[in-house]
Amino acid sequence: MLNNKKIVVVMPAYNAAPTLQSTYDEIPLDVVDEVILVDDCSSDDTIELARSIGLTHIIRHDTNTGYGGNQKTCYKKAIELGGDVIIMLHPDYQYTPKLITSMASLITEGVFDCVLGSRILGTGALNGGMPVYKFISNRLLTAFQNLVINYKLSEYHTGYRAFSREILQTLPLDENANGFVFDNQMLAQIIYAKFSIGEITCPTRYAAGSSSISFTNSVKYGIGVMKTSILFFLNRHNLITSPIFKNLGSRNKPVNGK
Fold it and tell me: What is the DSSP string of the chain?
């Protein structure tokens, strides 16, 4: 609990056995009430390790649903458990769980509806081992999105995110893709619905056990990001109606003071 709000951490897992213990050991369990692990049909012993750690909320997909499909299960379970603040933490130990308290407090105090752990603020990305081509593509895609969406974030591509319960109950997440672009669609929806977003500096680690998508999937992701931004623009100007943004424009909350 934090400020009388229930804090739930969700971990979308796929072959996370090498890093799960290290990640779990840094979760501030004095603040976090529930930890959910959803295993997307891993071929390693992720499930067995999760049980040995003592996790009580473990869900296994019998078939691989994809990164986005995994998150959909994570968030449905977090809402079912009554989470007020839901934090997505990758179990590959790329992002430090030590920021959970800070991220959650910004939401429980009513400062922001969503908080992102940014690898780009400061010098954490390259110093933490982010491949140069990923850093460059991150910067280019972020610049494109800030221009098209008319918003300003240091990056749209971090996998470390905290959400208010209201966000998860408002967004039509089932309309989003089951692949990697789910993250970007979700963030675009949050902006479209005028929820407020804050960012904090997050160090990152790229190591042998860290998950990473292939170059081909990175290209597909980049195309999906640009498509999402263009759909956002067209919907915002009432030129088309896309299912991922349907009914979100009726919300009247200010966007970071705008």
Answer: -BTTB-EEEEEEESS-HHHHHHHHHTS-TTT--EEEEEE-S-SSSHHHHHHHHT-SEEEE-SS---HHHHHHHHHHHHHHTT-SEEEE--TTSSB-GGGHHHHHHHHHTTS-SEEEEESSSTTHHHHTT--HHHHHHHHHHHHHHHHHHT---S-S--S-EEEEHHHHHHS-GGGS-SSTTHHHHHHHHHHHTT--EEEEE--B---TTS----HHHHHHHHHHHHHHHHHHHHHHTTS---TTTTTGGG----STT-
